[in-house]
Structures are given as structure tokens and as C-alpha cells.
Amino acid sequence: MTALNDHLIKLIKLHGPLSISNYMTEALTNPKYGYYAKQIPFGEKGDFVTAPEVSQMFGELIGLWFADIWLKMKKPRTVHLIELGPGNGTLMADFLRVLKVLPEFLDTINLHFVETSKQLIEIQKEKLKEFPNNKNWYETVKSALSATNDEDGVEVTFIIANEFFDALPIRQFQKEELGWHERMVTVGESGKNLEVMLSPFPVHDVKLNEKLVNALQHSIIEVSPMTDFVVFEICKHFQKNKGAALFIDYGYDEHSTGETLQAVKNHNYQGIFEFPGEADLSAHVNFKRIHDIVVECDLTPYGPAPQRQFLSAMGIEERVKTLLKDATPEQTQDLISDLKRLISPDEMGTLFKVLGILSVESIEIAGF
Questions:
Q1: Any bridge partners for residue 220, and if so which?
Q2: Which of 59, 98, 105, 232 has the largest count of CB atoms under 10 Å?
Q3: In angstroms, rounded to a whole number, what is the distance separating the alpha carbons of residues 162 and 85?
Q4: Distance between CA atoms of residues 116 and 355, nearest Å
């Protein structure tokens, strides 16, 4: 059992069962026992590997995607570049490094990071120390957006979120005879473990997509109010400010039932209650919901497209062919392996989706 497990048992005994959302929040961000307060999750020595750690080509292509938009926006003189959940700083380091071929764009960038982990902030500062751009860190998306508000209309905001939304808390509901009951976390019969229970009464505060209203009994749905809030905040920002955003995560592109909450420790899947505070928790992202919010805000969404399609359209295969010309046998094997991991349907190619947002409709964007 973990320290957080004991803490949550005491909490539940005092105040009653926790929602899945509250359990995720405690497991990931509890300031004393939470996963991000104690762990360095990314990379081969961590619990999972993200696309930027697979290959620097990933961050480079994202940098070129935004560079293309900057050029088509006629080179605005100031760019506020916000990264949500920067991890080890690898994506941003590769992003900025490739822009050395376009120093005019690189020099316009002010960097803004949304990060709650003090450990990761120090790692990010070290990783990005070679870049002299202005750098600021924030605990919330809203505070980062507020710092970039433009009054004279000559600045733009670019936002990148790679594997950010999957870690935001979700609520789960299960359909029974009387309606949808929220799935809660309670103490098991042994008094030492955590388990799922259903709220005794159905809930009425959740708006369901019409495709889910007639779901079969015992079906489970997941909703993420925090994701909705963040996307609405970004969209409200783009209603007043020029800019573009790119969201990349694993998820699905149609409303559906099913449980996707998962725990990962040492690159292996675990039960969600096995190592509270010591395993990463995440859930698949509902890209259809994000798309619908963007449309509701009268903005232009692109995608969601499979990561394979996006990276191929951005020229990743051509980039690999160029690198292979001067590669050693070992480098050749690594390049081919990295490409497979990023775009193969059996790896990250189709499970991961890419969604773009553009505040203006007058330019054509790449990748979609």
C-alpha cells in the first residue's frame, strides 16, 4: 500500500466516497503524496515515453507547423507561445532548435508554460537554458492566457498541448435501471484497499450527447469538465486574439461508451488502485467533444486526424529518408524504429489524434 492510499482511506472514512475525478486529482497532484509531486514520469527511466522522447523529429515538425502559420499571418512582430504540460521540456527544445533556420520567427517568441510540478519546472529551465527567449511559468491555463492578452491586435498566441488533456480529471457514470449513477471511490471490505462503488441515486447534472442517451444498461461513459473548461477558455481567447493551437493526445473521435481510465507504472499497465500516487493515471481524450466546442465558439477546427496522417503530411517520411543518406547502421535502425513508433497503426499512429484550431479562416494550414 502507498502513503496516498492510507491518506485517501482516512479521507473517505471522514467525508464519504470520492468521485473518480477527485481521486484522479489526489493521485496526480496531492502536494505531499501525488504522483507529479514525487515522480519524474517521462522517458525510459520513468513510467512512460511520450512522442518527443521517441524522436526529435516530432517537436521539429510541430515547430515548422507553427512557423508556416506565422509566415502566412504575415510575420506578426510578437508571438506568445504557450505549452500546456511541457514535461521534460524536450518538445519545446526541439521546437525552438528547428526554428534556428528561421531566426526572424524565433526572435519574436515569448514562452509561457503551464506546469504545476516544481521538479519538472527545474528540469524545463535546464533543458531550455540555451534559448534566450522570455520564459514564464504558470499554474493554470487561464493565468497563462491572461498574460498574453493583446490590445493592439499585432500579437498572436500559439498553443501546443501534447499529452496534456489525457491527465485532466474525468467523471465516470454507469447506466442502471433508474438512470446514470456516478462511479465513486470507497474503502473495500478489508479496510485497507480502495474500490469502485455507484452513487445510490442517479445524477441529473450531466448533459449527455444524444448518441449516448439510449446506451445499454451497465454502459459506462466518461466526461471531463476540466477539459471542457480549458478548451472554452482557449476558444474565448481566440475570439479576441489571433492565433492557433495544436492538441495531440490519445483518444477517440466519436462519442462512445466505455471505460478508458488507466494506470501506468514502469511502462506497464496496473490496476487504477494498485499504486495510488506512484502510478500515472490518464484517460482517453474525447476529441469529438473538443471539436464540437470549437465549432460552438465559431472558430475553425482542423481534424481530429490520426497522428500518422498529420506527421506524414508534415513530411516525416521524407525527413527520415534524408537522414538515412548519411546514417550509420545503428542510426539507420534507430531512425526506422522511431518512425514506426510514431506513425505505425500498431504503435502511436492511429490511437493518437491531432486537432488544430485557427482563429482566422483566410489562411490554409498544413497537416490536415
A1: 174
A2: 59
A3: 7
A4: 24
Does 206 score more than 80 pLDDT? Answer: no
Quote the distance between the C-alpha of residue 153 and its chain's center: 28
CA-closest candidate to residue 66, choices 283, 314, 286, 270? 314
**Average pLDDT rounded to a whole number, residues 216-245:** 96
Alpha-carbon gap, residue 153 to 111, rounded angstroms: 19
CA–CA gap between residue 247 and residue 132 (Å, rounded): 26
Using CA atoms, how far apart are residues 326 and 75, in angstroms rounded to an integer? Answer: 34
**The Cα angle at residue 283 between residues 55 and 111, in degrees rounded to 5:** 50
Task: Kindly provide the residue ranges of all beta strands, DSSP E only, lying in the chain, ordered along the sequence.
Answer: 18-19, 78-84, 109-114, 135-138, 155-162, 171-176, 179-187, 194-198, 220-223, 242-252, 262-265, 268-270, 280-282, 285-286, 300-306, 352-358
DSSP state of 216: P
User: What does DSSP assign to residue 17?
Assistant: P
pLDDT digits (tens, 9 = 90+) for 50-83: 888 899 999 999 999 999 999 999 999 999 999 9
> How many CB atoms within 10 Å of residue 211?
12
CA–CA distance, 260 with 283 (Å, rounded to integer): 5
Look at residue 41 in the predicted model and tell me its pLDDT: 57
Cα(84)–Cα(72) distance, integer angstroms: 24
At 40, is the pLDDT very low, low, confident or very high (cuts 50, 70, 90)? low
Q: What element of type H or E holds 59? A: helix 56-72
For the chain, list the domains and their CATH numbers.
Answer: 3-357 (3.40.50.12710)
